[in-house]
Design goal:
This protein is an alpha+beta fold. It has ten helices and nine strands. Helix 8 packs across helix 9. This is Helix-turn-helix, AraC domain-containing protein.
């Protein structure tokens, strides 16, 4: 499931949550369990050490420290430890009211978040584990507060990591545009290279460059066209094709709109100056 961090933050800020329990489990090397089901409430899994592969409703997840996993109620569950080390993890089981499930589907879904190496999440998690074993109403209130602090820390870390990854994606996309600007490029095509939809890709591009991907592509093509007009004897139609436009008339209109000159006029002026 593709998770929207802002939507998920809104979800946890508004729903009514009851903490069922916090469990800590250690599975020896080679341990495996198939054909089971998750409990009748939602769970958040925190790998602590070692590696394992879990399947929620048949979808595989690579369980390792730095990642956090969510599973909905009554999902098919298979798991097996990877490598020669034991696998340790903690899981928070929680429940929401029925109305929340209708408004926000996250409680019923399985998904993964990359929080990275965040020691504060571990500290809060172990505090929650201790409080959940303490009887009384006050510990229950503290447990809910700690749970929200954990989610805040996870979502903030995951959002920061996505932003860092977004910058790298945009840098790669710019490099790709520079190498393939003469070809037929579209935003969906570019987005597909990075497993994003058009909206996600356009958002990241705008955020990191200050302009949309289409705007950037046009700007780069026009700059390349100006270079070709000043350094070659190619016709406007040939230059149009060289920078990715099969229709010379459309290219001429676009060029004039961007520069204030028709490409043929600019080419004549440049030749006169050179002469």
């Amino acid at each position: 499931m593709n998770v929207n961090i802002n939507e998920l933050a809104h979800y946890y800020a508004t729903i009514n949550i009851s903490i069922i329990d916090v469990a800590r489990t250690v599975v020896p090397p080679g341990g495996r369990c198939f054909g089971r089901y998750t409990p009748p409430f939602s769970g958040i899994v925190f790998p602590l050490r070692g590696r394992a592969r879990m399947f929620f409703n048949g979808v595989p997840y690579e369980m390792e420290y730095g990642k956090v996993f969510h599973a909905g109620p009554n999902m098919s569950l298979d798991k097996e430890v990877q490598g020669r080390s034991e696998w340790a993890f903690m899981v928070i089981h929680y429940q929401t009211d029925d109305s929340a499930a209708d408004s926000f589907p996250y409680a019923l879904a399985h998904f993964e978040l990359e929080a990275g190496y965040n020691t504060r999440i571990n500290d809060l998690l172990h505090r929650l584990y201790t409080i959940c074993t303490t009887p009384g109403k006050l510990p229950k209130l503290r447990a809910k507060s700690l749970f929200l602090s954990i989610m805040d820390e996870i979502l903030t870390s995951a959002d920061n990591r996505r932003n860092e990854g977004g910058q790298e994606i945009v840098e790669q996309a710019i490099e790709y545009i520079h190498s393939h600007y003469m070809e037929s490029l579209t935003v969906p095509m570019l987005a597909g290279h990075y497993a994003l939809n058009s909206k996600q890709f356009a958002y990241l591009f705008q955020k990191n460059t200050g302009m949309g991907p289409n705007e950037y592509l046009i700007d780069y093509r026009i700059r390349r066209a100006k270079e070709l007009l000043s350094t070659t004897a190619c016709s406007v139609a040939e230059i149009s094709a060289c920078v990715g436009y099969s229709d010379p008339y459309y290219f001429s209109k676009l060029f004039k709109k961007r520069t204030g000159f028709c490409p043929s006029v600019l080419q004549s002026c440049l030749k006169e100056n050179i002469g």
